[in-house]
Amino acid sequence: MNKLETISLEGGGDGPQSMRVYEALRRAILRSDLQPGAALQETELASHLQVSRTPIREAIRRLNADGLVEVIPYKGAFVKALSRTEVREIYETAEGLEGMAAWLAARKVAAEGGVERLQKAAQAMREAFDRGDVVARTEADTEFHAALHELADNAYLAQALARLREQVHRVRHLTARAFGGNAASLEEHEAACRAIADGDAELARTITQKHWERVRTETLSLLP
Amino acid sequence: MNKLETISLEGGGDGPQSMRVYEALRRAILRSDLQPGAALQETELASHLQVSRTPIREAIRRLNADGLVEVIPYKGAFVKALSRTEVREIYETAEGLEGMAAWLAARKVAAEGGVERLQKAAQAMREAFDRGDVVARTEADTEFHAALHELADNAYLAQALARLREQVHRVRHLTARAFGGNAASLEEHEAACRAIADGDAELARTITQKHWERVRTETLSLLP
DNA sequence: GTGTCTCATCTTGTATACAATCTGAAATAC
DNA sequence: GTATTTCAGATTGTATACAAGATGAGACAC
Asked: Under a CB-based contact definition with an 8 Å cutoff, are residues A79 and A34 in contact?
């Protein structure tokens, strides 16, 4: 029995219904209300959300593009499972992409400055960590990466990273760890921030890559 | 006046019609039969391809996910333009992803070998280049990257790179250059291949990144 | 009992009708 | 003449009916 009762169009935006359905299903998957492997039956969802199958189908196809759902022709759509292999792949891809983002950010700072937002976020993370404020630390972490992606000045890369970030969120949910990470993670963020502020692109990339490599190893050790 | 007459379902696979439409439109965009900015009108395409609007819509949404088409609600779908900014973003993203792929490939070779396919492709590229055989060189280049992605052993990364590769193809089409690249490109492929064969992951990554950085600079210098 | 076939049933894929929204040109006010 | 409004046409978004393919239970042969 699926927990369809937790899925609702209420919180969503005001665009076309397919968009609202998409956001509702996306939330449900990210919050694990729809668990990995769960089937997304069009008729069932349609009657529950009081819309026709058409917007349901569009939403499912979009979730498929996001990598959150797997679609098998004439068979159905299923919430993608996060196997050990897929977790590894996601973190490896993040390493490549965010390393590149750090490199670009450092180069941009070297050319025209503007590192303040990133530094402020890094400082906020440190303070939240010292206070033991998990919520504030998670918020600061989100802000840190938003600032990094802004500095990288690459919409394509930012979009790819946003998709990955959602998957990472799901993994965190699985391993039941806080998103901001531990003390080591904190120091790596600060080191990356310093390298970017110094305009040292190669170092920024290397530090960021090592960070993701460590997080990957650590996370995989928590999985079966 | 759009060149719809060049779009056909003939060459496609045998899956659902939405899949065949998707492949037909994808081919048309990659071959520039549908030029950047062109509107994809559902009714027009439906009557031309002899299907209803439904599979047309599904195909368009999938192309949107691939980054080949831009969809604006209640307005329409348009073949994405390749502005200078987008070209830069695409090449930067490719640098991050393929650098990571090279790193992973080198690590895998160091652990369990299997570099033969990559070496063979690199050698084929060299021979085709010496003969001046552009077609063979392009084929060998495709094979080289396929071998690299196989060694990287990361389906998620491979899929992202496949999408990027299509965009790069479009850029090549714009700049009217052969895909395999010049002599410098050839040497960089060989150097990357050697680093991977040696199992030197960091070097493989660096060489691959430098390659894409050079190609990016070179390509951007050819655009307005 | 085991394996295969048949067919009713369910789910997804497609076609078509209708609703919502955008667009542009003509009409109108000033 | 210019700006604003109105409205008809065109296009996308949604609902619903029908077609195509998958699934599993039961019949049947051996």
From this structure: yes
Together in a domain, A66 and A92: no
- Of B70, B38, B85, B127, nearest in space to A155 by CA: B85
Distance from CA of A213 to the nearest CA of B (A): 11
- Contact between chains at A92 and B154 (C-beta distance less than 8 A): yes
Q: Who's near A23: CB < 8 A, 6+ residues apart?
A: A11, A12, A13
- Is there a single domain that holds both residue A39 and residue A88? no
Instruction: Determine if residue B133 is left, alpha or beta; phi over 0 gives left, psi from -120 to 50 gives alpha, anything else beta.
Output: beta
Evaluate whether B60 touches B120 at the Cβ level (below 8 Å).
Answer: no
Residue A135: CA count within 13 A, CB half-sphere: 0
CA–C1' B75–D2 (A): 28
How far is B133 from chain A, CA to nearest CA, in Å? 33
Nearest nucleotide (C1') to the CA of residue A54?
D14
Of B19, B86, B156, the CB nearest to A89: B156
Residue pLDDT, tens place only, A119-169? 999 999 999 999 999 899 999 999 999 999 999 999 999 999 999 999 999
Is the pLDDT reported for residue A1 higher than 50? no
Question: Do A63 and A88 reside in the same domain of the chain?
Answer: no
Residue B176: pLDDT above 70?
yes
Domain boundary among B79, B113, B139: B79
Say whether A89 and B155 touch across the interface (CB within 8 A).
yes
Same domain, B91 and B156: yes
Q: Name which of A19, A53, A154 to mutate to probe chain B: the one with the most chain B Cβ atoms within 10 A of its Cβ.
A: A154
Q: Domain range holding B93?
A: 84-221
The CATH number of whichever domain residue A74 belongs to comes to: 1.10.10.10
Best probe of the B interface among A89, A104, A163, A202, by most B CBs < 10 A, is A89
Those residues whose C-beta lies under 8 Å from the C-beta of residue B160, and which sit 6 or more positions away, are A93, A160, B97
